[in-house]
Amino acid sequence: MRTHGPEQREAQRRGGLQRRGTWHNGEKVSCHISCPKRAFTEKIIEARAIYPGVEQQRLDDYFLCNEEKISLWRPRIFAGMAARLRNQWDRNEGLGQNHNAVKFLGQDFESLRAQCLRSRSLFEDSYFPTTTVSLGFKELGPQSAKTQGVRWMRPTEICRNPEFIVDGATRTDICQGALGDCWLLAAIASLTLNDELLHRVVPHGQDFRTQYAGIFHFQFWQFGEWLDVVIDDRLPVKDGKLLFVHSAEGTEFWSALLEKAYAKLNGCYEALSGGSTCEGFEDFTGGVTEMYELSKPPSDLYSIISRAVERGSLLGCSIDITSSRDMEAVTFKKLVKGHAYSVTGVDEVVYRGNMTKLVRIRNPWGEVEWTGAWSDNSREWDNVDRSVRGRLQNRSEDGEFWMSFSDFLREFSRLEICNLTADALQNSQLKKWSSNLFQGEWRRGSTAGGCRNFPATFWLNPQFKIQLQHPDSPGSPECSFVAALMQKDRRKKRKEGKDMETIGFAVYEIPREYVGKSGVHLKRDFFLTHASSARSELFINLREVSSRLKLPPGEYIIVPSTFEPHTEADFVLRVFSEKPADSEEMDDDIKAEIPTDNYLDESQIDAGFKSLFRQLAGPDMEISVTELQTILNRIISKHKDLKTDGFTKESCRSMINLMDKDGSGKLGLTEFHVLWEKIKRYLTIFREFDCDKSGTMSSYEMRKALGSAGFNLNNQLFQLIILRYTEADMTVDFDNFVTCLVRLETMYKTFTTLDTDKDNVIQLDFVQWIMLTMFA
C-alpha cells in the first residue's frame, strides 16, 4: 500500500491507524496497516495483547508513512481445535525438547540475526518494545514514579567494552536491582554452579564482538516444553545505571539479558515480582522441586542437601514473614526476611575436637551477609585447621557466607530443592526416576469440579492413573513417587488482574473391578463411598503444588483440582516414581450405542400422526427446513416446563441432514416419524436429568444425559460440547440438547459409513472435507 486517500492522510495527521482487510467472526485475520511509526507500534502491542497466540510473518514489502519505513505483518492464525491438533502433532515429532525448542512468538534467532547483519542494522524487538508496556502495569506502570526518567540503552552505549560472559558465568555476576525478583536471581545464581545446565538456558555463541547485531536468545522450560526466546539488547536504565539485575563490575551483561528474556516470556518485568525459587529452578531445568519446612526437617536432611549439591541440583532457602512490615526486613545478624537465598555448598570441619556441619549460602543482592557464627570474619575460623580455613573462608563482601547447619535450621524457614535428574534423595545410591507428564485443563461447566468438599462435581475433574508395581527396595512395603501439579501461564495474566488459583490433588486406590482397565472415568458414586489414599499437603495459590508420597503397590488415580468449582485454568501434572511406573489419563473411551431407527411402512404409522403430517407438510407432502422449525417450535411452546429459545433454522437443517435419506433436503412421512420418535426420547432423557425441574439441565449433568442417550465422550470432546451448547449461566436448554445429540449422531454415522475397514481412520481430500463439514 503506497498510495493514500484523504481518509488515510487525515488519519496520519492525527497519528491514527487505517485498516483494510479480511474479517472473520468480528476479528481481523489479515490486514494492511498505514500509520505513523509511533501509532503503529502501539497498535501492534495492543493487538498482541488481544491475540497472544497469533504467529506473525514478516513481509518483504513495506510502505513509507510520515517519511518513516514501517514493516508490514501478516497474521497466520491457527485457532481452536486446529491449533490444538497442530501443537499435538508437533510435540509428537519432538518439537519442544531442549535441542529442538519452540520458537517463542515464531521468532527465529539465526534468521533474524542474519537479516540484521545483511542490512547492517541492530535488532529492535517489536514484541517487547522499549516502552512502559514492557516494564509493567502497576508499580512499574506508565504513571509510576519508578518508571519516570527510564531510558533504554544497549550495553555498547552503557560502557565502553561490554562483555557477555567473562571467564565463565559466576554467582557474583548477579546483583538485584529495583525489582522484587530475588527468587529468580537466587535460581540464576544456583544455575551458575553447573556449566552444562547454564548453557542449556544461555546458548553458546553470543557476545558483543563476533556477529554482533543487538540480538540475543535464551531458552526456558515452560509447562512441558522448551521455548527459545529472542530479545534485543536494549535495557532499562535510570540515572545512568541498569534499573534491574546487573553484574558487580557493571560490564558483564548476560544476567541482565537473561532477566529481560524471562520478562518477555511472562509479559513484562513487573510480572516477575514475587515468587518462589523453585519456579525459577524448574523453568531453567525442567526438573521437579521438593520443599522442606525447616521447623520439622527429616532426620537425614543434611545428607539430602549434600547429595543434592554433589549432583548439581539447585537449592534455595528463605525466611518466612509474619506481616508486610517484615518484607525484606534485616535481622540483627543481617539475614533478610521474605528474601530468596541460594544454597551453594556444604562442608564439615573439625572445630574444637568435634565435627561441625556447615552450609554455604548466597544473597543475590551481592551484599548484606550473615554476621553470626561462621560468617566471613567470625572467630570460629581461628579454631579451624589453616588449610581448611584457606579453602573455605571468604572475607569479601560478595553476598556469600557460611553458617552452621544448626543455625541454618534455626534461622531459615524453608528449603527448596530442584532435582535435575530426579534422583532418589532418600538413598545414597543414585537412581533414575521414571517420569510422566500430562497436560490438562479445568473448564467451567465440564471439568472444573472443585475439591472433595464439592461431591456433586468433584468427579468431573480430570483423572490420571498410576501403576505402582515395584517397592523401593527388597523388603520395603511401599513405592515412593513425587506428584507435582503446576498451573500454567498465571504469571503473565497478572496484567489482566488474574493471579494464581488455589490448587491441590487427591490420590485414590482404583477399585478391584477397574484394575487393569483403561477408558474408565470414575463417577460420583465412587467418590461418595471411598476415602482418599493420599493427598497434597495443602491446597494453596502457588504455581506448583508437589508432594513426596509412599503407597503400597497397586493402581491409583490422581485427581487434580482447584479448590472451588467453576474455576478455569490450564495445568500440567508430573509424576516421578522411584521405580518404573506406567501412567495414563483415566478417561472414558469415545463410543456410541445409538438405538436403531425404526422406519415403518406408511401403513404402519398411526392414522392420527398421518393426519397431522398432511396438515403440516402442505401439498408436496414433504417438510422443509422452515416448516420443520415452525412445527417444532409450535409443539415445544406447549411444554411450559421447558425453558427454550426455540429451534433455529440451523438446528432444523441439521435434523433434516440426519434423517434425509433421498437427498431431497426435505422429510417425508416415514423420515419425519423417525425424527419425532427421537425427539420424544430426547425429551424423556432431558426431564430425567433436569434434577431441579427448572426447565434446563446443568452442564455438569450433561455428561450423564449424553451417556443415557448412547454417547460416551472423553473430557476433551465434552469440553467442546459444553462450550458450544451451554448458555452463559452454564445451563443447557432443550433445543440445544436436541441439536447436540443430532449433530453427534450425524458425525458418528458419517464417520462409520466412511470407515470401511473399521480401523478408526478415514481419508478425505479437501473437497470431501469441506462438503462434509459445511453440511453436517
Automatic annotation (TrEMBL):
Biased composition (Basic and acidic residues): 1-13
Catalytic reaction list: Broad endopeptidase specificity
Chief subcellular location: membrane
GO biological process, one term: proteolysis
Region annotation (Disordered) ranges: 1-22
The name this protein goes by in its record: Calpain-1 catalytic subunit
Keyword terms: Autocatalytic cleavage, Calcium, Cell membrane, Cytoplasm, Hydrolase, Membrane, Metal-binding, Phosphoprotein, Protease, Repeat, Thiol protease
A single GO molecular function term of this UniProt record: calcium ion binding
Cofactor(s) the protein needs: Ca(2+)
EC primary class: hydrolase
Localization of this protein: Cell membrane; Cytoplasm
Record SMART domains: calpain_III (SM00720), CysPc (SM00230), EFh (SM00054)
Residues annotated as domain EF-hand: 677-712
Residue span(s) of domain Calpain catalytic: 122-421
Similarity comment: Belongs to the peptidase C2 family.
EC number assigned by the record: 3.4.22.52
GO terms under cellular component: cytoplasm; plasma membrane
Active-site residues, Swiss-Prot/TrEMBL: 182, 339, 363
A family per Pfam: Peptidase_C2
Organism, as annotated: Knipowitschia caucasica (Caucasian dwarf goby)
PROSITE patterns for the chain: CALPAIN_CAT, EF_HAND_1, EF_HAND_2, THIOL_PROTEASE_CYS
Top-level division of the source organism's lineage: Eukaryota
InterPro entries named among the record's database cross-references: C2_III, Calpain_cysteine_protease, Calpain_domain_III, Calpain_III, Calpain_III_sf, EF-hand-dom_pair, EF_Hand_1_Ca_BS, EF_hand_dom
